[in-house]
C-alpha cells in the first residue's frame, strides 16, 4: 500500500455502524485512485461487511475492542473507552498514519476526544463545528453548530476567522463574506457577546458584512454565518424540521387521489430535482475546526451516500491543508489584534 | 356606537401604515357585528384611506400627531413619542376604552411602551412574545420570540406557564403539551439556564413533556415550545428563510420551460394548497403575553389579509380573557412554587 493519502473511518459510529460505513468506504474508493481508507472497529463485524464486496489493498482494518454509545457522556467515553473505534481513528491522525478521520458517532464524545488527543491550534480557545447548508446561490457555511453552548465575543471572533479561512482554502474564494447572526439588522438589538463580537469583526481585515438574521442564511448573500453553538444547533435543526414538513406535505398531497397522482407524475422531474437539490445527504459532513488535525462528523443517521459525502469532505480538507491554513490565519489575526490593542 | 368590544389599531405602524391597516380594518368589520375599531394615527392620512370605502359608525378615528419609526430606539420612542399612534393605541387599552390593540410597528418600541403603560401582571418578570407556526398536526406555539435576549430559568418557567394557559384559553386544550427547546434530547446537553428550567418544569403541574429539538417544532407533537428570545427569533426567521428558499425553487422550476409550465399547470391545485397551508399571512399576529392588557404585534411587512388576521387574534384573546387567565395561572404556580420551596 503506497497511497499518498489515508483517511481513518470510525466503522462503529452512527446508528448503523459498519453496515453503512463499509459500503460507503468502498463506494468512495471505487471513484478514487490515490486514497487509502482504514476501517477502525470490531474486526469481525467489518469483515462480515467486506466479505462479499470487491475491494483492494487500499482498504485495511484496524481492530478496536470498544465502541462509544450515541448517548454516552463525553467525559465517560474519554475516560473509559481508550480502545474505542472513535478514539483509535483519532489516534491514527495524531500518529500521522492517517491525515483525517471521519465518524458518525456521538458528537460530544467526538469533540472531547479529538480535543484531548489532537489538541487545539495555537490561539484557538475552542474548536467549532461547521457545515454547509443550501442557499439561493449555492451554499452557506454555518458555525458553531453545537460544540460551544456559551460563547464569548472572542470565541465568536475566532469562529469567524476559522470559517472564513476554511472557505478560502476549500472553495478558493479570496475574501468570503462573513456575517454575524443576530436578531435585528439594527445595531441596537442582540445580546452583549454578539455586540462585542461585532466590534471585533468590524475592525479586523476579514470581509465582514455585519449582522445577518436567520432568514439571510438561505439567501446566500454571505458565505459564512457565525453564531454560538446553542443557536447554531437550533437553526440547523429547525431548518431540517421545516424542510421535512414541506416535503412531506408535498408528497402526501400528490398521493391523495388518482387526479393528484397524475399531476404528481407530470411534476415528477421537478419534484425529483427538488429532492436532489435539498437532499440533506449532499450536505452531510461537518468539520471540527481549530484542531491540529482533520476530523469530520457525519450525521448519526447517515446512509451510505451521505457517509461517502463526509469522506469526500475529509479528502478535500487534506488536499487543502485546512488545519495549517487556519493556524496561519489565527496567528495573523492574533498578531493584528495585539498590534491594534497596543495602538 | 354601542359595540361590546373595541380594538384600537395603530394605523401608522408597519411598512405600509394606513394603506394596509385601514382596508384590513374594514375587511374585518364586514365579517363582524359586535366589534368596533378605533383607527389611531394621522387623521388626514386615515381619512384619505377611508374616503372611498364603505364603513359605518363602528369605525372611529383617534388622531395622534406622531409615529414611531421602524428603526427607532425603544427608549427614545418611549421618551419622545408620547403622542405616537402606537402609544395612544396602548393608552386606549389602559383607559379601558379599547380591550386590545394591534400594531405592526417596531417590536422593541411596542414592547417597551406596552410594558411601561400597561405594566406586567403580578408575578410576571418579563412579558414574552408568542406566535403560532404550522406543523404536521396543525400548529405549534413558540415563545419567546425576541423580547428577552438573556433569560434565566425562572423566566423560561414563567414563559411556559403563560404559553400553556394561552393555548388552554384560546384553543380549549385542557393540558397543552409544553416542551423546552434544547440542543439534544439527552439530559447531558444544553446550557445552564435551560437545565435549571427543565428542573423547575419537571416538578410543576404543567403538562411538561421535556426537552425538544429544533426539528420537533414542526412535528406538532407539542403545543408550546419555550426558548429564550434570541434563540426564538433565530428559529422563527430561519424557518421563514427555508420556507422561502424551497417555495422559490419550486415556482422557478415550474416556470423553466413550456414543458415544466404544463406540469406546473397540472400541479397547480396542489401548489396552491401548499401556498395556502403555509401562507405566513395565516399565522400573522404575535401576542405580547404577561401584560395587564392585550397587545398584538403584526409583522411589519403585513398586507391587508395578514393584518386582518392579527385583528382576529386580538378579538379572540378578548373573548377568552387571556390576561386574567394568565394572571390566575401565574398566581397558582407561584403559590405552588412557594409551597414546594417550603417543603
UniProtKB/TrEMBL annotation, chains A, B:
Keyword Cytoplasm: yes
Enzyme Commission designation: 2.3.1.274
Principal cellular location given in the protein's record: cytoplasm
Recorded catalytic activity of this chain's protein: a fatty acyl-[ACP] + phosphate = an acyl phosphate + holo-[ACP]
Classification via HAMAP family: PlsX (MF_00019)
Family statement: Belongs to the PlsX family.
Subunit description: Homodimer. Probably interacts with PlsY.
Name the UniProt record assigns to this protein: Phosphate acyltransferase
Organism listed in the record: Thioflavicoccus mobilis 8321
Lineage of source species: Bacteria, Pseudomonadati, Pseudomonadota, Gammaproteobacteria, Chromatiales
Amino acid at each position: 500500500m503506497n497511497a499518498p493519502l489515508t483517511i481513518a473511518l470510525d466503522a462503529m459510529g452512527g446508528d448503523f455502524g459498519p453496515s453503512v460505513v463499509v459500503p460507503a468506504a468502498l463506494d468512495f474508493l471505487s471513484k478514487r485512485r490515490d486514497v487509502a481508507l482504514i476501517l477502525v472497529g470490531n474486526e469481525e463485524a467489518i469483515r462480515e461487511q467486506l466479505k462479499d464486496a470487491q475491494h483492494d489493498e487500499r482498504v485495511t482494518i484496524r481492530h478496536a475492542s470498544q465502541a462509544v454509545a450515541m448517548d454516552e457522556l463525553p467525559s465517560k467515553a474519554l475516560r473509559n473507552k481508550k480502545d474505542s473505534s472513535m478514539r483509535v481513528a483519532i489516534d491514527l491522525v495524531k500518529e500521522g498514519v492517517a491525515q483525517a478521520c471521519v465518524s458518525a458517532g456521538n458528537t460530544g464524545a467526538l469533540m472531547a476526544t479529538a480535543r484531548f488527543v489532537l489538541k487545539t491550534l495555537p490561539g484557538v480557545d475552542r474548536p467549532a463545528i461547521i457545515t454547509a447548508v443550501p442557499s439561493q446561490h449555492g451554499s452557506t457555511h454555518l458555525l458553531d453548530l453545537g460544540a460551544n453552548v456559551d460563547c464569548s465575543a472572542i470565541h465568536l471572533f475566532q469562529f469567524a476567522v476559522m470559517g472564513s479561512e476554511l472557505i478560502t482554502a476549500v472553495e478558493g474564494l479570496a475574501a468570503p463574506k462573513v456575517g454575524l447572526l443576530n436578531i435585528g439588522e439594527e445595531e441596537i438589538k442582540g445580546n452583549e457577546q454578539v455586540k462585542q463580537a461585532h466590534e471585533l469583526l468590524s475592525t479586523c481585515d476579514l470581509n465582514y458584512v455585519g449582522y445577518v438574521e436567520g432568514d439571510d442564511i438561505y439567501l446566500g448573500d454571505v458565505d459564512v454565518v457565525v453564531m454560538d453553538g446553542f443557536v447554531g444547533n437550533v437553526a440547523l435543526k429547525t431548518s431540517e424540521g421545516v424542510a421535512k414538513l414541506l416535503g412531506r406535505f408535498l408528497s402526501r398531497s400528490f398521493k391523495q387521489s388518482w387526479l393528484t397522482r397524475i399531476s404528481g407524475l407530470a411534476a415528477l422531474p421537478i419534484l425529483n430535482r427538488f429532492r436532489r437539490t435539498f437532499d440533506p445527504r449532499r450536505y452531510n459532513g461537518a468539520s471540527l475546526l481549530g484542531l491540529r488535525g482533520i476530523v469530520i462528523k457525519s450525521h448519526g443517521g447517515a446512509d451510505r451516500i451521505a457517509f461517502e459525502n463526509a469522506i469526500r469532505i475529509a479528502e478535500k480538507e487534506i488536499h487543502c491543508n485546512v488545519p495549517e491554513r487556519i493556524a496561519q490565519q489565527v496567528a495573523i489575526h492574533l498578531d493584528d489584534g495585539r498590534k491594534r490593542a497596543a495602538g
